[in-house]
Amino acid sequence: MKLHEQILADFKESMKSREEVRLSTLRLLRSELKNKEIEKQTELTEDDMLAVIKTMVKQYKEALEQFKSGGREDLVEKQKKEIEILEAYLPAQMPDEEIETIIREVLNEAGEGAGDIGKMMGAVMKKVAGRADGNRVRTLVQKMVQ
User: Fold this and answer.
1) Same domain as 100, residue 81
2) Is this prediction's pTM over 0.85?
3) 102 and 83 in one domain?
4) What is the span of the domain harbouring residue 63?
5) Average pLDDT of the residues of the chain
6) Cα 10–47–101 angle (5° rounding)?
7) What dihedral angle (degrees, nearest 10) is formed by the CA atoms of 88, 35, 16, 7?
8) CATH code: domain of residue 53
9) Residue 44 pLDDT class (50, 70, 90 cuts)
10) Residue 89 to residue 73: CA distance in whole angstroms
11) Three-state DSSP class for residue 117
12) How confident is the model over 72-114, as pLDDT tens digits?
């Protein structure tokens, strides 16, 4: 089943089962996808949809941190549920061991230029291809380069 069809099916199911948090999250996701489609003036590809979902997850995680620092535990729990709902549509994240293997490969290829974290990040992120969070990759690269 395509991603768009899956989101629509889950949206309908959450309406029937009256899951308010899931319904509102999927409603917002569908709205964001539609806005992106209007912006591009063409139908979205799977990669475009994943990019929109990743952006939403990133925004939600930033909001989660703000809620935590503000002491709003009621909003923290809701935000965690919303992030979990959205992450279900993203590809599975790579384990740290697999990312470290890719970093070692890039380090071996780079040789002398391995000290530039920016170049390392670019090369590693190409090989990871969206299967790992950039912040996680950066942390592992910094740990292995130093």
Assistant:
1) no
2) no
3) no
4) 3-87
5) 84
6) 105
7) -30
8) 1.10.1510.10
9) confident
10) 25
11) helix
12) 888 888 999 999 999 888 887 778 788 888 888 887 776 655 5
**Which pLDDT band holds residue 24 (cuts at 50, 70, 90)?**
very high
Domain-ending residue, one of 46, 69, 87: 87
Neighbours of 134 (CB within 10 A): 14
∠ at Cα 130 (140, 109), nearest 5°? 55
How far apart (Å, rounded) are the C-alpha atoms in residues 107 and 130? 20
In a shared domain, residues 72 and 40: yes
- Residues 100 and 128 placed together within one structural domain of the fold: yes
Whether 35 and 100 map to the same domain: the answer is no
H runs (alpha helix) in the chain: 3-17, 20-40, 46-70, 73-87, 96-110, 117-128, 134-145
Question: What tokens appear for 34 in the block?
Answer: 């539609």
Q: Which residues lie closer than 8 Å to 120 by C-beta, 6 or more apart? A: 103, 106, 107, 110, 114, 141, 145
CA distance 97 to 125: 15
The backbone torsions φ and ψ at residue 89, rounded to the nearest 5 degrees and listed phi first, read: -90, -10
Using the Cα atoms of residue 54, residue 57, residue 62 and residue 65 in order, give the sign of their dihedral.
negative
Q: Is 4 helix (H, G, I), strand (E, B) or coil?
A: helix
Grade residue 25 by pLDDT with cuts at 50, 70 and 90: very high
